[in-house]
Amino acid sequence: MSTIGIGVQLYTLRSEGSKDFKGMLRKVAELGYEGVEFAGYGGLSPQELKEELEQLGLTAVGSHVGLPRLKENLQEEIEMNAAIGSKYVTCPGWFKEGRTQEEFLEVVQILQHSSRRFAEHGIAFGYHNHSFEFEEKMGEKTLFDAFFSALPPEELFVELDVCWAHNAGLDPVDVMKQYAGRTPLLHMKDLRKEDGKLLTVELGTGEVDLKPILAAAPETGVKWFIVEQDECQNPPFDSIATSREWLRSSYR
């Protein structure tokens, strides 16, 4: 079996982290997670966070860094992620209504500049999807394909959120195969629809067909499964424990 790490996107635990960031990290390690993907750093300095991760035996898989910080605070993000040993930094999305071609080109320039700066420190740079990138067009291509056509694989990797790809009507495995070798990180997420509402739920408890995704992961170059729930339906630590156990028992 190919070795693929299991990490968690700490956005899932944002309420816990806002109360006790170090305690949150400690609990994640106790639950058996190997790595963490950051969405903020709890006010810790690069050296403090580096030491905390080392003490807990956690790998810094990477960080989500939004477009505003890429534009205004890039050097801070480089210093933090270089210090904690991140291998990946990802833009979590382009959140704007009425996206235009001109604005798209401006975003691509920000992504390219950021990628090249991170690459100087051995950090790969990528983009994370929601559903809208598959549903909207930019020219003749979906916004998703437009992003990954605008920059070469060495400048922009795919962090595929399998739940949102499914929600947009795609088979995530098809996307993984289309971008084989370019998708080191998978956001593992499940969903269920109740009373017209979309709920993100623990892995294996929703409608996303996750087993074929696990099977396709080694052959498409996945390095990390990253558990994420946008909104937990149960206490967040219980949710990520359930999802990790499902991954551990299902990926063989």
Automatic annotation (TrEMBL):
Q: Which InterPro entries match?
A: IolE/XylAMocC-like, Xyl_isomerase-like_sf, Xyl_isomerase-like_TIM-brl
**Which part of the chain is the Xylose isomerase-like TIM barrel domain?**
25-249
The superkingdom of the source organism is Bacteria
Identification of the protein by name: TIM barrel protein
